[in-house]
């Protein structure tokens, strides 16, 4: 957690890193947060690694419901060990939203390239599991599933935000379960 007793970062180290396309540090202007981008996760940066100063004040609490550790753990437990789409649907039932692009055309030369650039073949969203969090299930073409638990957009914010842009809200929480070994 950020230590409010520490003065804000005065150097430009984080800003500099975030503007470097080779670095895995990114700035999210909507949340006013810096993140370390991993292959399946985003980790929030609370303090500047160079000067030790506090990172800018996050706007997250204005945009998202509060997700307690207890509730996060309950949801993590719920999806623990679910390593296929079938297992998830059998345990959780039908999702609130199911973004299914359909079967790819087998005879198109671009298929392989598309599979690489679009690794998530199908995305399921469960909104009814919790009052404070939603679950997103990303299904790769390989069959691997990745469960991401993230705080719900604030009801106030959701009302004043264009619904079409809600789906673009970043999933800034660490994935709960990376079920299924990469093949
Ligand atoms: Zn600094």
Features:
183 residues; alpha+beta; 2 domains; four-stranded antiparallel beta sheet; three-stranded antiparallel beta sheet; 7 helices; 25% helix; globular; disordered C terminus; binds zinc ion
CA-based gyration radius: 18 Å
Low-confidence stretches: 158-183
Helix content: 25-40%
Bound molecules: zinc ion
SSE topology:
Blueprint: H1 13-18, E1 25-28, E2 33-37, E3 42-44, H2 60-63, H3 69-79, H4 85-92, E4 97-99, H5 111-117, E5 120-126, E6 133-140, E7 145-151, H6 155-160, H7 163-166
Antiparallel strand pairs: 1-2, 2-3, 4-5, 5-6, 6-7
The chain binds zinc ion.
Verbal overview:
The longest helix has 11 residues, at 69-79. Helix content is 25%, strand content 20%. The protein is globular. A hairpin with a 4-residue loop joins strand 6 (133-140) and strand 7. It is an alpha+beta fold. The strands form two sheets. A four-stranded antiparallel sheet has the order 4-5-6-7, covered by helices on one side. A three-stranded antiparallel sheet has the order 1-2-3. The chain contains seven helices and seven strands. The model is unreliable at 158-183 (pLDDT under 50). It has helices at 13-18, 60-63, 69-79, 85-92, 111-117, 155-160, 163-166, and strands at 25-28, 33-37, 42-44, 97-99, 120-126, 133-140, 145-151. It has two domains: 13-58, no CATH class; 69-166, no CATH class. The chain starts with 12 loop residues before the first helix and ends in a 17-residue tail after the last helix. Zinc ion is lined by residues 9, 11, 13, 48, 50-51, 53.
């Amino acid at each position: 957690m950020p230590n409010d007793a520490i003065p804000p970062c005065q150097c430009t180290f984080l800003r500099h890193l975030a503007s470097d396309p080779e670095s895995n540090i990114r700035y999210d202007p909507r949340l006013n947060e810096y993140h370390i981008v991993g292959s399946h996760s985003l980790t929030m940066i609370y303090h500047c690694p160079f000067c030790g100063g506090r990172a800018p004040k996050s706007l997250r609490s204005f945009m998202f419901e509060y997700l307690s550790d207890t509730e996060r753990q309950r949801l993590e437990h719920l999806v623990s060990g679910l390593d296929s789409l079938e297992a998830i649907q059998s345990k959780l039932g039908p999702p609130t939203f199911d973004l299914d692009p359909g079967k790819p055309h087998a005879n198109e030369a671009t298929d392989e390239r598309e599979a690489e650039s679009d690794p998530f073949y199908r995305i399921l969203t469960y909104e009814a599991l919790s009052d404070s969090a939603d679950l997103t299930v990303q299904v790769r073409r390989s069959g691997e599933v990745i469960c991401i638990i993230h705080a719900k957009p604030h009801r106030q914010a959701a009302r004043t935000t264009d619904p079409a842009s809600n789906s673009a809200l970043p999933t800034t929480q660490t994935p709960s379960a990376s079920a299924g070994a990469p093949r």
